[in-house]
Amino acid sequence: MINYKEEIAKILADADIGLSFDEIKEIVEVPSDSKMGDYAFPCFKLAKVLRKAPPMIAKDIAEKITGKDLFEKVESVNAYVNMYISKQNFIEHVVPEIVNAGDSFGRSNIGEGRPLIVEYSSPNICKPFHIGHIRSTVIGNALYKIYDAIGYDVIRINHLGDYGTQFGKMIVAYRLWGNKEDVEREPIKTLLSYYTKFHVEVETHPELDDEARKVFVKLEAGEKEEVELWQWFREMSLKEFNRVYDMLDIKFDSYNGESFYSDKMPRIVNELKEKGLLQESQGAQVVDLSEYGMPPALVTKSDGSSLYLTRDIAAAVYRKETYNFVKNIYVVASQQNLHFQQWFKVVELLGYEWAKDCVHVPFGMVSLEDGTMSTRHGRVVFLEDVLNKAVDQTREIVKEKGVNTENLEETAKAVGIGAVIFQELSNNRIKDYVFSWDRVLNFEGETGPYVQYTHARACSVLRNAGEELVAKACEFKDIDFSYLTGDAAYTLVKLMYELPDVIVDAAEKYEPSVVTRHLIDIAQGFNRFYHEEHILVDNEAEKLAKVALVKAAKNVIANGLALLGMKAPEKM
Predict the structure, then answer these.
(1) What pLDDT, on the 0 to 100 scale, is given for residue 305?
(2) Please, which residues bridge with residue 41 across strands?
(3) pLDDT at 379 over 80
(4) pTM for this one?
(5) CATH of the domain at 452
(6) Range of 52's domain?
(7) 127 an active-site residue?
């Protein structure tokens, strides 16, 4: 793919304007208003070098580079040189490149196969996989796909919440009120009912808390009965979770959760002691972080038991030694900002220079329309229920519209689940939002189904054109690209050309919504082209050029949807 910023920088460097190629490339920009050109070069920086007013410099540069084949028009406006790329030159380079690249369009090798970790989803076993978990799950999955697309070797980790005093409570609750058959039939909902009952009963029987603490001590000590029950809870929970992951088509390379690091924590505590970082505070061991504007980091409780912070440090050390990551990304709610700031600082104080490579990617919280969710009180919306309801509603819509699809169920799943994913990824991840069935299942406007429908529309055009003509168009022999120089076609090609840079931008910002918003722009651009230009015309040369553009748009939309973890149906 031609890098037009680089081509412009070469032309300007050859014009001997007093700056190096790299300096020029850094300054070249894309105007927010396309009426001001495809690219612009501000001349303020040259005023000192050339000892002229910036508007005069812009005028001189515009005169020097006018007439170059790359440009349709060059003009100076105040202190800017505005450059309009030759539409035909641009389109005849970009459209064949997109079509020939196929599934790989947008991909690059920036990561050079270096290992990068993304930790996401990470639900607690024995607790519901609820709507609140969807944020970490789909944001993390999209980041995995985005980093994979730019060439990193991505390791996907599901750091399960499978350790802590709550398992003492769960074991006590199961022994008091549990039934094996009920758990096996509906693991999470049954275990949740026990957990909820425990918190109701403890109000009048506080001794239950003492019993739960004793049971957890036995679990930590490896007592056979407690360990077997805990392992069974974990196995049953994963069985439930995997059903949801299968619906979302999400996989992981590791399910090593908190329990995996329990035997790796003493080493961390010893290192903290050796480095003189530990202090005693009311019987507990802490690292004083007041110098860095943070409260003390609690390493061990007064009874000697470990905490999240210690386990997270142990996990990070294990991951560095196992994977030698260049970046270790944690997709975890913004409520945990302080926790991550604290343990990142402790890792740094331990002398691990790779602390700077650990990144917390926070996101806003989900609440219900009638208040916050509470696992303890059983007030949750199960994620599986949301996905099933989305699929059911989509199935009905597809039936009503009489869509001619070979597989109704497959289409309903792709569109219904895609609608939920897209809605999660359409806004900036840091924003809090209130979960609403109406909003999730609204398929109108700037939504996932709109983008998927645009892909299906492109597929429909290609089917109507016929395989023979599509194959001929994609050979790019003697295609007259002048038929694609209208505003709608040119705007669409420009948007598609930008996708590789958009993917890199999304990776740098840890922000999948950058891709989502650009996909909406591409879909709108395609629909404008579709409505303004008749595609399957009688003129063979014109039809070949337009079919080639439709094929390119279909590829780009499918690739963009795949980055978000969504399917691209061919019929809707």
Answers:
(1) 66
(2) 81
(3) no
(4) 0.92
(5) 1.10.730.10
(6) 4-85
(7) yes
